[in-house]
Write a structure and sequence with these properties.
Cyt-d_ubiquinol_oxidase_su_1, globular, metal-binding, two-stranded antiparallel sheet, transport, mainly alpha, transmembrane, single chain, membrane, about 475 residues, two-stranded antiparallel ribbon
C-alpha cells in the first residue's frame, strides 16, 4: 500500500510523529518535577498540610507522565539505526558521546532517586526525601541539557574535523561542541517553555476546580501559584525568544527568511508580515498583511536596516516556507495569549478578585493545553526551518537516510501510529481522570501493589512491624514523617 510513496518522506514523518509524542511528556515532566520540589520545600518550611496534599496529588500525575516520556524516548533512539543509519554513521562520533552522557548522568540520576521520591518518604526521613525530589528535578534539567546540546550542534555545527570517509570527528575541544553557538539560547528558551507548559496545565486544573467551587483552598493555591508563574515568566520567555531569534538570524538566516515570509530582499527596511499565504511556486507571499519596516526594527533594531530574502537562496536550499511561517505564528500567538492571561491575573490579584473572576478561570482552563501546542509549533519551526539539512550546511537530509524501501518505512509508521494512540492515549486519559478529581485533605500518595516491586537482587525484607499500614504510603500529616526513620 506504500509502493507509490517516497521512503525519505515517510521516514521524516515517522520521526516527526514519534518525537512530537515524546516531546509532550518531557515538556510537562521537566516543569512538574520542579513544581513538586517547590511544593515539598514549602511543606517542610511551613508544615502546612495543604502543600503536602498538593505534592501527593501531582506526584501521581508526574509518575505517569515520566514513565510515558521514558518509553516514548527509547523508541526514537532505534530510528537512528533503522531509518537514519547514514546520519548515525557520519555524525555518530560527535553526537553519540553526548547522548551517552545524557544516559549516564541524567537518566541514571532520575532513575536512582525516582523510587525514593515516589515510595520512600516514610523510610528515609523528610530531609533525604526532599533531596531525592531535588535530584529528580535536577535530572530532568540535565537531560534537557544534553539533548538540546545535540540538537543545537546539528543546527550550528562547530568544533569538529572531517574524516577521510566523510565522518564528523570531534576536534581538540569538546567544550566547543557542547556549548555550540545556538545552544545557550535554545536551552533557556526550551526550559522556560517547559516551565510555562506545566504552569498552564496546573493553572487549568486549578481553574477547573475553582469553577466548581471557588472556596476550595487547594484549588486556590494551585491557581495562584500557576498565575504567578505565568505573569513573571512569560515576559522573560518573550525576551529569551527574541534573543534566540537574533542568534538564528546570525547562524541560520534562511530559517528566519522562512519564518518572516520574506521571499524578496528588502534593502530599505523589511515589513513584519502578520498574515499571508506563502506561495513557494511563485516565490511570493499572497494576501500579505504586514507592518512596514517592523521586521527590520525587531531583527536589526533599525527601521531602515536591509534584510535579505529567499530570492538570494537557491531553490534546493529553501525550507518549506508555509510550514515554518505558520508554525512560528502559532508559537508566537500562543505566547502572547499566555502573556494576556498572566497580566489579567495580576489585575485580578490587585483587585482582590483572583478567585472570583469566572472569565479569567475559563480563559486559564482553555489555555491549559496551550503550552503543548506552543512547544510542538516551536519544534516544527526549528526542525523544518533547518531543511534541507540534517547537519546544517554540511549534510543533507536526503543523504542521511537509510537505503530502505517505502513499504518497509510505511509499515513501521503505521504500527507506530496505532500503538502510540492506543498506549499513550490510555495514559493521557488516566492523567486527565486524575486531574478531574479535586485535591483532598489527607491526599493519598503513590502506592505499591500488594506484592511490591519486583526485586532482582538483594535480600527480601521481612514483614513490617505494622502490617496494617502501607509502608510506602506518603504520610498524611507532618507528624507522621519523622526525621531519621
Amino acid at each position: 500500500m506504500f509502493d507509490g510513496f517516497d521512503a525519505l518522506l515517510l521516514a521524516r514523518i515517522q520521526f516527526a510523529f514519534t518525537v512530537s509524542f515524546h516531546f509532550i511528556f518531557p515538556a510537562f515532566s521537566i516543569g512538574l518535577a520542579s513544581y513538586l520540589m517547590v511544593l515539598e520545600g514549602l511543606w517542610l518550611k511551613t508544615g502546612k498540610q495543604l502543600y503536602l496534599d498538593l505534592f501527593k496529588y501531582w506526584l501521581k500525575i508526574f509518575a505517569i507522565a515520566f514513565a510515558m516520556g521514558v518509553v516514548s524516548g527509547i523508541v526514537m533512539s532505534y530510528q537512528f539505526g533503522t531509518n537514519w543509519s547514514v546520519f548515525s554513521d557520519r555524525a555518530g562520533p560527535v553526537i553519540g558521546p553526548l547522548m551517552a552522557y545524557e544516559v549516564l548522568t541524567a537518566f541514571f540520576l532520575e532513575a536512582g532517586f525516582l523510587g525514593v521520591m515516589l515510595f520512600g518518604m516514610n523510610k528515609v526521613g523528610k530531609g533525604l526525601h526532599f533531596a531525592a525530589t531535588c535530584m529528580v528535578a535536577f535530572g530532568t534539567f540535565v537531560s534537557a541539557f544534553w539533548i538540546l546540546s545535540v540538537n543545537s550542534w546539528m543546527q550550528t555545527p562547530v568544533g569538529f574535523e572531517m574524516g577521510a570517509n566523510g565522518e564528523f570527528l570531534p576536534g581538540p575541544s569538546w567544550w566547543d561542541i557542547v556549548f555550540n553557538p545556538s545552544f545557550p539560547y535554545r536551552l533557556v528558551h526550551t526550559v522556560l517553555a517547559a516551565y510555562l507548559t506545566t504552569a498552564f496545565v496546573v493553572g487549568g486544573v486549578g481553574a477547573w476546580h475553582l469553577l466548581k467551587d471557588r472556596t476550595n483552598a487547594h484549588a486556590r493555591t494551585i491557581f495562584s501559584m500557576a498565575m504567578w508563574m505565568a505573569a513573571l515568566v512569560v515576559p522573560i520567555q518573550i525576551f529569551a525568544g527574541d534573543m534566540h531569534g537574533l542568534n538564528t538570524l546570525e547562524h541560520q538566516p534562511v530559517k528566519v527568511m522562512a519564518m518572516e515570509g520574506h521571499y524578496e530582499s528588502h534593502p530599505d527596511g523589511a515589513p513584519l508580515y502578520l498574515f499571508g499565504i506563502p506561495n513557494d511556486k511563485e516565490q511570493r507571499l499572497d494576501y500579505a498583511v504586514g507592518i512596514p519596516k517592523a521586521s527590520s526594527l525587531i531583527l536589526k533594531h533599525d527601521l531602515d536596516a536591509p534584510l535579505a530574502g529567499l530570492d538570494k537562496v537557491p531553490d534546493d536550499e529553501q525550507p518549506p516556507v508555509a510550514i515554518v511561517f505558520w508554525s512560528f505564528r502559532v508559537m508566537v500567538g500562543i505566547g502572547f495569549l499566555m502573556l494576556g492571561v498572566g497580566l489579567w491575573s495580576l489585575l485580578a490579584r490587585w483587585r482582590g478578585k483572583l478567585y472570583d473572576w469566572r472569565w479569567l478561570h475559563r480563559a486559564a482552563l482553555v489555555l491549559g493545553p496551550s503550552g503543548f501546542v506552543a512547544v510542538i509549533a516551536g519544534w516544527i519551526t526549528t526542525e523544518v526551518g533547518r531543511q534541507p539539512w540534517v547537519v546544517y550546511g554540511l549534510l543533507r537530509t536526503a543523504d542521511a537516510a537509510s537505503p530502505l524501501d517505502a513499504p518497509a518505512v510505511g509499515a513501521s509508521l503505521l504500527a507506530f501510529v496505532v500503538v502510540y494512540f492506543a498506549v499513550f492515549g490510555v495514559g493521557t486519559w488516566y492523567i486527565l481522570r486524575l486531574m478531574k478529581a479535586s485535591p483532598q485533605t489527607g491526599e493519598k500518595g503513590v502506592k505499591r501493589t500488594e506484592k511490591g516491586p519486583v526485586r532482582t537482587a538483594g535480600i527480601t525484607p521481612g514483614p513490617t512491624q505494622n502490617p496494617g499500614r502501607d509502608p510506602d504510603a506518603l504520610p498524611s500529616s507532618d507528624e507522621e514523617a519523622t526525621d531519621g526513620r
